[in-house]
Amino acid sequence: MEPIHLDDMCWRILKTLSHTPKTPQMVSRIHGIPIAECWNRIRFLEGLDIIQVVLTFVTSEGKVLSFYQTMPEKLSIIYEDRPAVYFTPAG
Predict the structure, then answer these.
(1) Cα–Cα distance between 42 and 31 in angstroms, integer?
(2) pTM of the full predicted structure?
(3) Spatial distance between the Cα atoms of 70 and 85, rounded to a whole number of angstroms
(4) Average pLDDT of each block of 10 consecutive residues along the chain (91 residues)?
(5) Which of 29, 34, 40, 59 could make an SS bond with 63 (beta carbons 3.0 to 4.6 A apart)?
(6) In the beta sheet, which residues pair with residue 68?
């Protein structure tokens, strides 16, 4: 496992997605994070392969909604001097 230090916004997103799947819009509203920043962090965390889309559907208005959730089997959170996330890299 490789360590990575995340900023506060990423921590809040990870914590929120660890309970139940949510859309980026839901996470944005919960934490008051601008939606563009929320999307950037979610893409970053998805790129690390520690969150994933668990449900995608199209609303009756034709809007595509994707729900994200953490992948707990790939995460270990260690508190030393400051919290760090250890994860199993993709590949």
Answers:
(1) 14
(2) 0.76
(3) 12
(4) 74 88 96 94 90 94 94 63 55 47
(5) 59
(6) 22, 53
